[in-house]
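ok so I'm stuck.
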Amino acid sequence: MDFDIKKGHGASLEGDGLKNLMTEVFGAVKEEGGAYVTSFGATTRFEVKLISKTALSVATTSDKAAPTEAMVESNRKYNEFMEKATGFNTKERSKRLQKKAKDGKL
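replied:
not stuck anymore, here's the structure
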């Protein structure tokens, strides 16, 4: 899924910016085909790719059988990363996605 990046915020993700941010939040990160990949808590695969200064592509796979505490921790880390990466908080990201869905852009 693609997420908007707040105007003026995308430049900080260019070069090694995205990789450095992922390392700061999640620890070990590897590069696969232009995307950065890691895993944490109940999230077995977290793949992020910078599309442009205004868009970030994110794909996740989760362990549905993981303990509740692992799921809560995964959600916390995901939201922390997404807010730092996009410049938008959870509510703002949700509103933007809802608008895209309503406009038929998803």
